[in-house]
Design goal:
Layout: H1 6-16, H2 24-30, H3 49-57, H4 63-69, E1 77-78, E2 82-93, E3 98-112, E4 115-122, E5 125-135, E6 140-147, H5 161-164, E7 174-183, E8 186-193, E9 200-211, E10 214-225, E11 239-248, E12 251-260, E13 266-278, E14 281-291, H6 296-299, E15 300-313, E16 316-327, E17 334-343
Antiparallel strand pairs: 1-2, 2-3, 2-17, 3-4, 4-5, 5-6, 6-7, 7-8, 8-9, 9-10, 10-11, 11-12, 12-13, 13-14, 14-15, 15-16, 16-17
Length: 344
């Protein structure tokens, strides 16, 4: 294993792994929208009571330990109006060093039915901070405040190119609004933001469903950004994404293709294949490709990652991962790390 670029790799992991993304494969497997398990209509972040119990506790936990701990399960709701949660992540590198990537607490107040006020409190203070109104059994919603923009798959591979190269890093929270609606099974989201005096409008749509024995999801995202100078599109570039996935029995395949820039100057691709060995034990393979100038010979980055997702107890994840870089400045490098995650 080469070591000369270990520090840049570690830095990339630390910077890009600062927050929690969702498991979009679960939306594919169960043909349910992301909002079933998360307060945010587009997924990620704080989980609902339904998400905590049906998914994190009942599905992702080893059956043997789940049986032992069923009597000790506690709901995240305190009284009628307060819902709590948290996420903690640590990274153990192959040289023995440990990094704290995330220590977030979630606080959601429900003063009135279908009206919420949500806070995410991290090491640097409050990051997410918004009011949420839902209507017609959660088919429609409106959010106002500081929130994570909706774009593409919310995959858990924190430094995947489809997240980092499209301006959708894991610690991006913007002041703005988000409106959502579910129409004939299609989830539609429209958002508006103004970071650094640059107008940004997001459109995001996806549909989960079933076709015979298959579960699937198909969707797309489109971001329009204001040009604020010659050849300068500010913090967030124009971006487009198409994504989808299909699940059959114990196999789930999903992917995303992104075009970045007003003239589609860059493109990225993300692919994920997950196999369930047993409830609580999953093998994950991921592929990432990015072409910065549409010239593969000179501008492409590429890496593959292989992981074992292990959930020995409710809300506890252990993920040993091996990454090999096959193109770009890190070509020939590899990295092994273990992720420890406790979330509720």
């Amino acid at each position: 294993m080469k070591r000369n670029l270990t520090i840049p790799i570690i830095s990339l992991l630390i910077i890009s792994a600062a927050s929690l993304w969702a498991f979009p494969r679960l939306s594919i497997e169960h043909a349910e929208p992301c909002k079933s398990c998360h307060f945010a209509p587009s997924g990620s972040g704080a989980r609902t009571e339904y998400g905590n119990f049906t998914t994190a506790f009942n599905e992702l936990t080893l059956p043997q330990t789940k049986k032992l701990l069923t009597a000790h399960y506690r709901k995240p709701r305190i009284g009628e109006a307060l819902i709590l949660g948290f996420d903690m992540r640590y990274l153990l590198l192959d040289d023995g060093r440990i990094f704290r990537m995330q220590t977030d607490g979630f606080l959601t107040v429900e003063p009135l039915q279908n009206m919420y006020y949500h806070l995410r409190i991290g090491a640097n203070g409050v990051t997410e901070n918004y009011a949420l109104l839902t209507f017609a059994d959660n088919r429609y919603s409106a959010r106002f405040g500081t929130l994570a923009p909706a774009f593409g798959l919310r995959n858990e591979d924190h430094n995947s190119f489809n997240r980092s190269r499209t301006g959708n890093g894991p610690a991006v929270y913007l002041d703005g609004f988000s409106m959502s609606a579910e129409v004939k099974g299609v989830n539609l989201i429209a958002e508006g933001f103004n970071p650094a005096q640059q107008s940004v409008i997001n459109f995001h749509a996806y549909r989960p469903g079933t076709y015979g024995p298959l579960g699937y999801i198909v969707g797309g995202s489109y971001r329009i950004t204001e040009e604020i100078g010659p050849d300068n599109f500010g913090i967030f570039p124009h971006a487009k994404a198409v994504f989808g996935g299909v699940s059959w029995d114990r196999l789930t395949l999903m992917g995303e293709m992104d075009m970045v820039g007003k003239g589609n100057d860059q493109y990225t691709f993300y692919g994920n294949l997950t196999t369930r060995l047993e409830y609580g034990v999953y093998v994950v393979g991921e592929y990432n490709f990015h072409d910065a100038n549409r010239r593969i010979e000179s501008g492409a980055d590429e890496f593959l990652r292989f992981s074992l997702d292990f959930y020995p107890m409710p809300f506890v994840q252990i993920r040993p991962s091996y990454t090999t870089y096959t193109r770009g400045p890190l070509d020939g490098e590899d990295q092994f790390f273990v992720l420890f995650h406790v979330g509720y």
